[in-house]
Design a protein that fits this description.
metal ion binding, alpha/beta, metal-binding, binds zinc ion, binds D-allose, Xyl_isomerase-like_TIM-brl, isomerase activity
Length: 436
């Protein structure tokens, strides 16, 4: 009964997906077999790789289902979601076709509803669960008692800090009802002028407030601190880099970890090394996947620098093989799409992330370690390069097909005319600006 109910509420027809796959299956099989033969020459069993990839999943952000924007403009599209229910439906499409995104990361107060157990059931009927809850103390809400214009957890104003603490605790309470076990805290706190706030005392205030939130974490919960170098504060941010993040996480306690958003660093920073460092100290708690060219932190994952994404995953595989206590990162896509259909972007990003993961699995670890030990720089580099050069798309296509997803996600999505149907049923989104 349960299964029938679930299938009937999924937004894309399973017949349509099966028909789409049937037309492409022969060529996928041919490419998969050819790759299998190639990999077997180096002792790699393609089915073992495929089964490992099939287990990897990444969460999508509820806010990513809407078309975001820059601070200059937003260009809405017909059929865009306007509430959490519609966002869940779009996330279900992404998961149905990619079979890689079964969890949604909600954001409060944006996703507030009256009945969270009903929301949890609604998500489950769409094949979805909830991931980390995100608090929002970077913008004011209507009717809010104290403005965050002076900061939130680090505000100079005690009542504002208390309000930010209370909001984070409320997010934990909501998250408990939704089945989440992580609270992600990103604050926009910082300054735009030298001298605006004392750089030491603002961190003291942040730590005191964060300690109050930390104290409210239920038994198995984690608090994930997300650092960001700049924006919205352009002179200094309170948790600006991985150094500030790990120091704060270490002073808060074991249940506090660091979250790496790939777009939140200075240009050319060696992010994979940051990943390795955080893992070394047992503080790697989560990821926000996206890409960045200049300063925008929300470009589609792997769209600018897929090699960097691969190198990050190379460190994650190393971390998996040499786990430190509590290594269980929360993986999420965090992007803002202003010129694409968010469903298409999110599916393409899931594919880019899984591609980087698959290539990292293919690295000859023994060969790499041996070359490193022998100081054979070229062979060590080639161990990475040769995995990176492998076209892993037949593995990913096969994983999707076997799990009930679509071989060509974008083509199947367009054939379904989902967005066109939604544009008839949903009310239009207003104009405006802002990254959401
Ligand atoms: C902001 O830049 C951070 O990446 C946040 O993780 C996230 O994008 C935000 O909370 C949603 O607006
Ligand atoms: Zn982020
Ligand atoms: Zn960001």
């Amino acid at each position: 009964m349960e299964t029938n109910m679930t299938i009937s509420t999924l937004p894309i027809s399973t017949e349509l997906i099966a028909e789409h796959n049937a037309a492409l299956m022969a060529s996928v099989d041919e490419d998969y077999d050819a790759l299998g033969r190639k990999l077997s020459r180096t002792g790699v069993d393609i089915d073992v790789v495929k089964n490992k990839v099939a287990e990897f999943t990444v969460a999508v952000p509820s806010w990513g289902a809407g078309r975001g924007g820059t601070r200059f403009a937003k260009f809405p599209i017909p059929g865009e979601p306007t509430n959490i229910h519609e966002k869940l439906e779009d996330c279900a499409v992404i998961n149905q076709l990619s079979q890689a995104t079964p969890r949604v990361s909600p954001h409060f107060p944006w996703d507030k509803v009256d009945d969270y157990s009903a929301l949890r059931e609604e998500a489950a009927s769409l094949g979805l669960g909830f991931d980390a809850v995100n608090s929002n103390t970077f913008q004011d809400q209507l009717g809010q008692a104290h403005s965050y214009s002076t900061g939130s957890l680090s505000s100079t104003d005690a009542a504002t800090r208390a309000q930010a603490v209370e909001h984070n605790i409320e997010c934990i309470e909501i998250g408990q009802k939704l089945g989440s076990t992580d609270l992600t805290v990103w604050v926009g706190d910082g300054t735009n002028f030298p001298g605006q706030q004392d750089l030491g005392r603002s961190l003291d205030r942040y730590l005191d407030s964060a300690a109050e939130v930390y104290a409210a974490l239920p038994g198995t919960w984690r608090m994930l601190l997300e650092h960001k170098m700049f924006e919205p504060a352009f002179y200094s941010s309170v948790i600006s880099d991985w150094g500030s993040s790990i120091l704060a996480a270490q002073s808060l306690g074991d249940k506090c970890k660091c979250l790496v958003d790939l777009g939140h660093h200075a240009p050319n920073v060696n992010i994979e090394q940051i990943v390795a460092r955080l893992h070394r100290f047992g503080k790697l708690g989560g990821f926000h996947f996206n890409d960045s060219k200049y300063g925008d932190d929300d470009l589609d994952s792997g769209s600018i620098n897929p090699h960097q994404l691969f190198l990050v995953f190379n460190e994650l595989i190393e971390a998996e093989l040499h786990p430190r206590e509590g290594f269980n990162p929360a993986y999420m896509i965090d992007q803002s799409h202003n010129v694409t259909d968010p469903i298409e972007s999110m599916m393409a990003s899931a594919d880019a992330i899984l591609t980087a993961y698959t290539k990292a699995i293919l690295v000859d670890r023994q060969g790499l370690t041996a070359a490193q030990e022998a100081n054979d720089t070229m062979l060590a580099f080639q161990a990475l390069r040769s995995a990176y050069k492998t076209d892993t798309s037949p593995i990913l296509a096969k994983v999707r097909q076997e799990k009930g997803g679509a071989i060509d996600m974008i083509q199947a999505y367009r054939t379904s005319k989902y967005r066109e149907r939604k544009s008839q049923a949903r009310k239009p989104v207003g104009l405006g600006s802002g990254i959401v």
